[in-house]
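Summary for the funding panel

The consortium committed to producing paired sequence-structure records for every protein in the target list. Below we show the first two records in order, beginning with the earlier of the two.
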Amino acid sequence: MKRLFLLFSFVFSLAALQAQEELNVIYEEQFDGGIPADWDVTQATPAGAIWTWSDDGDAADLIVDGEVTGAGFWDNGMRGPIVSPSVANGCAMFNGDAYDNDGSGIDGLGLGPIPAGDVGYNGTLVSPTIDCSSLPGVVLLFNQFARTFDATFNVGVSNDDGATWTDFEINTELAVNAQTSAADEELLDISSIAANQPNVRIRFNFTGSYYFWLIDDVRVAELPQFNLAIDSVFYTPATFAQPRSFLCRDTFVFQADIDNIGSADRENVFLKAVVTTGEGTVLYEDSVMVESIAAGQEALNVQIDRLWVPENEDGSPLDEGSYNINYSVYTLNPGEEDFDPSDNATDRLFVATDDNLFSVDNGSDIAVQPGGGGDFEIGCYYSLPGDPCLSQMGDFFVTTLYFEYARNADTGPIAGQSVTGFLYKAREDLGPGLAGLTTAELQGDDWLNLVAFNSYEFPEGASNFDPNEIELLDAATFQPIIPVSPGDQLIATINYEGEAAQGFHAIQETPFLYENLTTFVFTSQWFLAGFGNDSHAVTRLNLDFMVNANAPILADEAMNIFPNPTTDRLTIDLALEAPTAAMIVVTSMDNKVIQTREFDNVQEEQVELNVSNLAAGTYIVSLMTEAGVKAMKFVKAAN
C-alpha cells in the first residue's frame, strides 16, 4: 500500500543480521510488557516527558496521566510498527510528537500534554550495569525506528556506572522530516569504552522536539572476529533510466566503501563489480584488492581501475531493458567465514530506454508535500551529456513531463484540480552539477531560464498515483517542440498552488545513493537537497529525436531495405562510397527513437534488425553518416 506523508520523508535501511545465533550475547532486553524497573527513565526535560512503553510497537499515541494523547504526524496509521524480532512484546518509545501535539497535526503544534516549548525535549533511557569484563571486544546491537524534524539521536556508553559518558550520534544521514527504515538494525562497536570493563551502562538520548524514537531488542555481545560489510556504493548511472543514445556516453565508475566491523585486522579484501543483462549475460566483471583494513576501520572510496562504457559484448549500444550492477566484498583467506554475509553484497539496477525516457525513479511508493502548508514546486534535475551518440545526426526535443499525485479523501477529489508543469534550463555559465551556483541565488529564479510550460487538469475518475502526462509548450513559440542541446542542465518540475497544494507529489524511496543532484523543491526558495540522495521525485522527462533536416541526402543505393512490409526481421543493405562511421536509427512516425545500431567503420554490409516486438504500423529507418543521411519508411505487419 502506498502512503501519503504530510512532510518530507525517506527511508534509510541496513540489512538485518542473518547470523545472530552465532553471537556471544551477555545481555539482552526485549522490553517485554514494559520498561523494566532497573532501566532509568527519570532524566527528562521538560519534567514528565519521559521514555515510555509502546505495547504495539508504534508511536501513534502515548498515555500521559492516564489519558491517551495521539501523535499529530503519525499519518493516520499509515506507518507500521517497528520491525523487530520481539515487537509482539512491545518496545521502548520516546514520542515527542505525542507530547507536543494534541493529535491534530499542524493545527495542534504546542497543544499537547507536555509541549516542547522553545528548548525541546531531552529524554534518556539508561540500562542497568552490564559486566563486560570478560569481553576483549564489545558490540551493541538494537532495533530502531526513528523520525526527525529537529531531533538528534545519541547512544551513550559509560564504563564507570554512569558517572561519565561517551556519546555516539546515529541517524546523522537523516534530512529534515526523514525517517529510518522500520526494520533498521544498528550495530555499534563500543570496544574502546566497554571492552574488559565491569561497570558498563548504555544510554539512549533523544533531544529536540519532533518526532519519535522506537527501540527494541537491545543486546550486548562479544564483537565478532570476521565481519566485513559494504557500507555504501557509488551509484554510477547518471539516472536510473535514460535513453540508449545518452547512456552510451555515460562512463561507469565502480566504487564502494568497505567496513571491517569485526575484531580482527583483515588482509587481501576484494571488491568486485559485475554488470549483467536481465537474462544474466555478463557485460562487465572486474575486481580490486585492498591489502589491509584494520579492525573497526573503513576503506573509503575503493575503486576498481577498469571503467566501463555501457555497451553490448560486440561494442554496440545496449539494448532496451533492465540491467543489474552487483557489488560484493570477500576474502579468499581460509577460515575467515564472514559473521554476517547478508551485507557482503548489494545490487543496483539501471534501465536503457528506447523511448527517450529520463527518470531518476523506478516507480513511486509514497507521496509528500513540504511541511507548513502553502504552494510548492517539486521536480527533478537531468543533465544531458555533451556528446550523445546521435548528437551529430539530428536534434533532440523535449515533449512531455510525467508525474503522479495523491490526496487524502477529506481534502476533496483529485478530478478538477489543476497544476502546471515547467521545464527550465540552468544558466549556461554554471558548471556540471550546477557548480558555481551560490546560496543567495537559490532565493530566486535568476539562475533558471524558463523554456517550456503547460497547465494540466486532472480528469474525471482520477485516482491516487495515477500516471499523468503534461504536453509541454515552448515558452517562446507556444509550440509542442522544445529543442534542447547536448550539455544542457534541465530541471523539470510540477507547480502546486491553492487547493492542489493540499495534495502530495509522488516520490520513490530507493537504495540508489545518487552522488549527483536529483530532486529539487521550491517553497520560499529553492532546496536542491530534496529528501536526501536516496529519495527521488517521480517527475520524468520524455525526449524525441529528429534527423537533421539540413544534412545532405545520400545516394539511393546507399541503403535499401527488405522485406517491406515485414513481420519480424528487417534486412538493410548498406553500400557506401567509402568506409565511414555510421548509425542506423529506427523511429516511429512521431519521432520516438525505437532502435539504434552504431558502426565504427562500415562500407558494404547487410544488417538485420529484429522488429518483431513493434506494434503494427509505419516506421522510419534512417542511415546517418558524416557524409549525409538517407531515410526510408517501412511497414510492420501484424504477426
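The next record, for a separate protein in the list, is shown here:
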Amino acid sequence: MGIAIIMLIGGVAALALTSLAVALYKKFKLKVPPQEKKNIHRWEVPGATIPPAPVEKLDDKKETGQRRPEERDNESPNVNNQTVLERIEEVKTSEEEAGTSKESKGDPTLQDRSNQSGQLKRREPGKKGGRPRGTTYKDSNTPRQPYTLRPEIVCWKRGRQWAMAAEIPDELLQKTGLTVLQSGAELIQEESEESLWPLTQVSGQVTVRWNEGEVFQEVKVELGHNDFLLFKLCGRNLNQGRLVKSISSGAYLVIAPEDWRRDEMQAGVAPIAPEPVSLHGYAAHFFDLEEGNSRKIGFRLPDGKSVCIEKKGRLFELVGDRIDDATEEKGPLFCGGAPRIVASDRQLWKDVKTIVIGQEGGGRGKWRLPFKPNSKTTEQQLPSEVAERKGGWYFLRFYNDGDELMESMDFRFLRGLKQVRIQHYTCFPAAKGHQPVIVEFHYDPDCTVRQISNAKAFRIQNQKDKTIVTIPSDPTWDRSIWLVSQNDGPEVEVTIIVKRIWWALGLENTAPSSWQDRSVTLSREEFRATSTKALWLRLPKRSWVDKLLVGFELSRARPYPVRAKDTTVAIPLREFSDAKEVVDDRDEHFFKIWVERKGLREEAVVAILSASRSSEPEGLRSLNLDIVSASQLATMLSSLRREAAGPLRLLIKEVRRKYRREKTASRKDLVEFKVYALCLIAFLKRSSQETATSKFLNAKQALLAARNFPEITKVLQQRFDDIKFGKIV
C-alpha cells in the first residue's frame, strides 16, 4: 500500500514538472543553441527565423561531409541528453546577450552583417588567406580597412603526393553552418588539418558558406578553366605553396594534366622529374625561375599546341637597409627598421584598395593588420605598429577594388640589427686548403645572437655591440642558421652560407660522406672505360653555378649540367678515357674544373694524374739541377712575364728578381733560384700559361721540382692568392 502511494505522488510530481517545462518553453521560445546550430548545415533564406531545436535525431544526410566521423562519435550523443531546464537557462542567457548586442546601435560590425534587401554582404580584404590571423593593435595615422573572410588555395606535399586544398581562415572555422563547396559539390574536411578542404578538380568555383547570426554569408574563389593550377612554392624544403595568377622569380609548381610535356626550349631542363598528385590524371611540374633570365613556364600539349606563362616584373618592391643573408624562403632581411614599399608605377597605388600585413609562421592567432595606401606618395610607409613589434617575419598582400590578390611577398626585419659582415674568402681553396671564415654580427647592446644547432662547432665571441663567429673549414658548417633577437622581442632567422667548393673521389652512384680541399691523386686505371669511379663536386647551394666545365685543358673541357635542385655533381672518370693525357703516361697531368657564374670564371686543380714511373726515362726519374741553366731560366721567366697579365705577371716578376748572375752569385742562391723558377714553371703549366711553358726545354724538370719541393709550390700558390685579392706586401 505504501509503495502504491509513493508511486502516485511521484507521478503527480512528474506531471507538474512537465507542465512547468512546457510553460517555460512557450515563454522563452526555445531556439537551437550555438553549439548545436554549428552542426546543422541547412541553407536558410537571409532574415528567416531559426525554428525551435528539433527533439528528433539529426538527419544523417545533413551531416555527410560536414564533420569527420570521429568528430561525430566524440560529441554529445543527442540534444535530448541535456535537460529542458538546462537548455532553457542557456537560451535565456544567449537571448539576453543577443538583445544587448542588438541594442548597440553604434556597432558597425553588426550593421555590416545584413542589409534591408536580405542579400549576401560582400566582405572586404583583410581576413583573406589561409593563415590564421589575430586581432589588430592600437590605431595609428595609417588608414585602416575592414577585414574580409576569404579562403586561400594552397598546395602541400602529403607523403609522396602533392595535394591542393581550400585553406579556411581561423575566424571562419569558428562560424556555425560552415560549408565548403567546389562547383556546387560539397568538399570533405582534411583529417590531419582542420583548416583544409582538399579540392576535387583544378577548375571551377570554390564557395565557402557560413551563418552570421541569423544571416548566411558566402565568399567565392574562381579557379578558372585553364585545366592547370599555378603555385608559388615556399618553405625551407619547398614543400608547400599558394595559388598565384602570374610569375616573377623563384620556385613554382604547376599542377597540369599528366600528358602535358615540359617545353624545354622555353622553360629549360626540369630541376626534378614530375611528381604524382592526389587528383587522378594530373602531375606536378617544377620550375625554378631566376631573376634576370628569360626562362618561362611552358608546356607542349598532345595536340601540338603549347601553353606558355610569361614572366611579369614585380609590381611592388621593398626598399631599406637590406642584409644579404641566405634565408631564401622567408624573403629579404632588413636591419635598422621595417622596409618601405615602392610601386613599379606610381599609378598602381590607385588600383590598390587594401594592403594586409601579417605575421608569418605556424600556429593560430597570428597578428595581422590591413591598411589603405596613400595614392599621392611614391613610397608607402608600413603602419607604426610594425616598428613597435621590433622585428619578425611578415607577409604583405595587395588587393584591388575587386578584392582580388594583386601580389604578395614576405620579408623579415630586426630593428636592433645593424649589419652582418663576412670576411673575404674564395670559393676554391688556396694551397693550404680552405681557411676559417670570420662573420661579425653588429647590433644594438640589447640584442643577442645564438646558434640553433651546434654552437660548439664554432668559436663565438660575444661583445657589447657585436658577436664574432669563426666558421671552421668544414663543409658541414658552410651553411649555419642563427637567431637574432632584441630585448625579448621576436627572434629573426639569419642564414649564413660560406660559398666554398669541395670534392672527393668515390663511386659513380654513391655520394661520398666526406669531402676534401686538396688535390686528389688519380691513376690511369680509374680512367678506364669500365671504371665506376667518379670525381664528386660539392657546391655551396642550389642554382649557384651557371656553367661547369671539367677536363685537362679549357679548350677540350666537357660541360656538365647542374640541376637547379642539386648541390652535388658526379663526374664519371671513364668519360675521359680517350683523353691524350690519359693515353700518354710519361707525364704528370692536372685534372681541372672551371666554374662560371655571373659572368666570371674561376678554375682549380682538383686532381693530379700521376706519371707511370716505369715508362719514364732513367734520367727523368729524379731531379738534376745541374743540367738546368739559371740564365736560361731567367730568360724564360722574362719571356713569360711579357705574355702574362694580372697577378701571374706580378708573381713571375717577384721570382725573376731572385736571379743573380752566376759569376757573382753563391751556389746556395743559384739553387734557390732554380727551385723557385722550376716550381713556378710547373705552377704556370697548371694555369692559362700552359702553351708558353711547353716551349721550355726542361719542362719535365719543372714537374719533378714541384713534386720534390711541394712546400715551394704551396708558397707560390699562397702568394698568387694574396696578389689576386689585393694582399700585396
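Regarding this second record: Confidence is low (pLDDT under 50) at residues 27-124, 126-147, 614-621, 689-693. The radius of gyration is 37 Å.
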